[in-house]
Amino acid sequence: MSNGWTEHVRHEHVRYAGSVTPRTRQPVSRRERPAKPALSRAGIVEAALGVLRAEGLEKVTMRRLAQELDTGPASLYVYVASTAELHAAVLDELLGEVELGRRGDDWAEALIAVLVSYTDVLFAHPALAGSAVSARPSGRNYLRLLEKLLALLGEGGVPDEQAAWGVDLLLLAATAVAAEHSAPAGTEDWDATRQAVENAPAETHPRVRALAGPLLSGSAEERLTWHFRTLINGIRHTPVPKGEPL
Predict the structure, then answer these.
(1) CB 83 within 8 A of CB 57
(2) What integer is the mean pLDDT of 113-132?
(3) CB under 8 Å to 172, separation ≥6 — which residues?
(4) Is 0.85 topped by the overall pTM?
(5) Regarding predicted confidence, which is higher, 71 or 246?
(6) Is pLDDT of 214 > 90?
(7) Is domain 95-237 classified as CATH 3.30.70.20?
(8) Which UniProt keywords apply (predicted)?
(9) Where are the domains of the chain?
(10) DSSP per-residue letters across 136-165
């Protein structure tokens, strides 16, 4: 016959055994761990987009993505040769947001609408705008944008050679505008520029002083569309020099 204390201890052990958390953690076999998704270029670019939106372009590095994907940086270079190529791939993915739908019957206005949409995409990602000046996208979305621009220039009767050179100029101008306006400039900087133009001495800078109003006039949207119209007109009427092919 067991004593009362032994029975009490046995009873309490059974009562609480299911709720007691063991102090030591049992090792988990590798076979029981969830398998990591296989690396791919598309997966790396998707992870880069997530880091871009959450932390900014400066954090989109091979080392940071390796942490995000739980792998080593060397593994990523199998799919992406460099950080510059990675940024170009990210840019190409964002180019899928450019609106290519037709607006109205005028081909030039439709072309401007596409270019404005392209600029807006870069405005939405300020850090990428500066990188886009030198980035060379080559993916499906870049080709889609290029095809649309060439088609609209062709619709306007622009000769093929001029259209081919012209799209590069149009995209470069749009990218430069986005990069300029995406730079971190405060209100004081712009005020200083305005005051410098308005107060330029007439004796030494007569043209600047006389044209201070026009120099500072117009909204950003008005100036942007005027830039594009000017470039389009120039592309239409400026033949490509004949020489050796590139």
Answers:
(1) no
(2) 87
(3) 133
(4) no
(5) 71
(6) yes
(7) no
(8) DNA-binding, Transcription, Transcription regulation
(9) 95-237
(10) ---SHHHHHHHHHHHHHHHHTT--HHHHHH
